[in-house]
Design goal:
Blueprint lengths: L2 E9 L2 E8 L4 H11 L8 E4 L10 E3 L25 E6 L5 E11 L7 E6 L8 H16 L5 H9 L5 H17 L4
Antiparallel strand pairs: 1-2, 1-6, 2-7, 3-4, 3-5, 5-6
Length: 185
């Protein structure tokens, strides 16, 4: 088999038809989708081949969290089981959850060395809308105006929690690490 033509849509009236080699990896498809929709590749991604978001049944992910996870860099489109009419989801950015609906429109015998867009309809949404940044600037101003708690006030708050201080500190460290890992801060 040579190549696939895959329709990828992000919203009603916004889609791209991409022709890509059957031997290309799912990771390559991920890169092409982001490029044609003008997104930055700065988050994790997954493909859900059963067309169900967060399904463990038939998915491929960008990085392993479980020993059984299948990585998008290691599987070609052909090995992922693509056939004409197959629908699947591509999910980018596990925080914002950008969901792209994908459908294999057809297979073609010709080889496609470089993926290409053969049809483009609609303007893609902005990955980071300007309003989001404006809101964050407002938050920064508010943070600068906050009063800091005194040591006595902090101790009083800790004493109201029915846990040892060491346990509270450990939970706080885990929460900070998770927030940094998932970009919540």
């Amino acid at each position: 088999m040579g190549s696939y033509v895959i329709s990828v849509s992000i919203a009603t009236g916004c889609y791209r038809h991409i022709q890509i080699s059957a031997s290309a990896s799912l990771f390559m498809l991920h890169q092409v989708i982001l490029k044609v929709f003008e997104f930055e590749d700065d988050h994790m991604h997954a493909f859900f081949m059963d067309n169900k978001r967060w399904s463990d049944w038939d998915c491929f992910v960008s990085s392993k969290s479980e020993p059984t996870d299948r990585l998008t860099k290691r599987y070609s489109l052909q090995k992922a089981g693509l056939t004409k009419g197959k629908k699947f989801l591509y999910l980018f950015d596990f925080g914002d959850e950008w969901v792209f609906q994908c459908k294999v429109l057809r297979t073609v015998e010709e080889r496609t060395d470089i993926p290409k867009v053969i049809r483009s309809v609609g303007e893609p949404p902005m990955q980071y809308p300007e309003e989001e940044w404006e809101d964050e600037e407002d938050w920064d101003d508010e943070d600068d105006q906050e009063e800091e708690l005194t040591r006595a006030e902090i101790d009083a708050l800790y004493s109201a929690i029915p846990l040892k201080r060491e346990t509270i500190t450990l939970i706080h460290r885990y929460a900070d690490a998770a927030a940094r890992l998932y970009g919540l801060i």
